[in-house]
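Q: Give me a backbone?
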Amino acid sequence: MSSERPDAAAVLSPQAARSFYEANARQRVRGLFDAGSVHEWLPPSQRIVSPHLEQLGQPRALDDGVMIGRATLAGRPVLFAAEEPGFMGGSVGEVHGAKLTGLLERAARDRPAAVVLLLDTGGVRLHEANAGLIAISEIQRAVFSARAAGVPVIVVSGGANGCYGGLGIVARCCDHIVMTEEGRLSVSGPEVIESQKGVEEFDAKDRALVWRTMGGKHRYLIGEADGFARDTMDDLRQAVAAFFDRPVPLTLEAVEREHAALGRRLERFGAAPDAVDIWSGLGVAEPRQLPLLDTEAFTALADRVKERGDV
């Protein structure tokens, strides 16, 4: 990476070279973007760290858990952010949030082919709750600034932490979301729902329930994820590049159309007790077998029956 000395954290193991899920943030950046094109801003050597964690006796990361910069993907210039899943669950604190906001504001100014956000987060960092919540609002505003400038903002969710909390909301404010089967997307995470509503409502330890409710296959079927890819760097690279030059209009008409689609979905599936019932309602003949389908069989089926939010 052009701004760094050789970085051991970015060296790809054979498994990380194949799997987005298994890789750390720097390995993901190296695996997804064109070789030799990555330039990092505010790298760890500049030691821009959280001003709060040390006071609380908590460990700090020299990049505050997020890598930002510019690169090319399929030869097109992009700006990128990659959250580090291994540092505090990819959580958003003051510096982490400011780096995301600055990246998006720069995109509105420089107008690259896209902004690619590799989100892998449980949401706001509880140690910096107020600063983190403010950061989420600033990130959201910056997303809209980039979109208003005609820059597609593309989210990838395929990591161990999923995409939850405030950044789950931010993700749905972006133009496009690409997920793998391993990805998860929601506002509240499984443990939060269980703690607030009880295990009878949602058993966070039931991993099959978690994935069929929040996972990539379900989100793609109900139209919240626009792209679905295998958990490989090559597949995700192609899936992201497919959304270049495809900004979603940020207009009152587009928002009203999406609200109408959400209303139709609520009317159609609001009483469904389980995702399996939704899949059945969509026309999946054997809904309980859907989690077992490989990527080709799943996408062939999903592209026939999935919900659409753009009509």
Notes: Strands lie at 39-41, 66-73, 76-83, 114-118, 153-157, 176-180, 227-229.
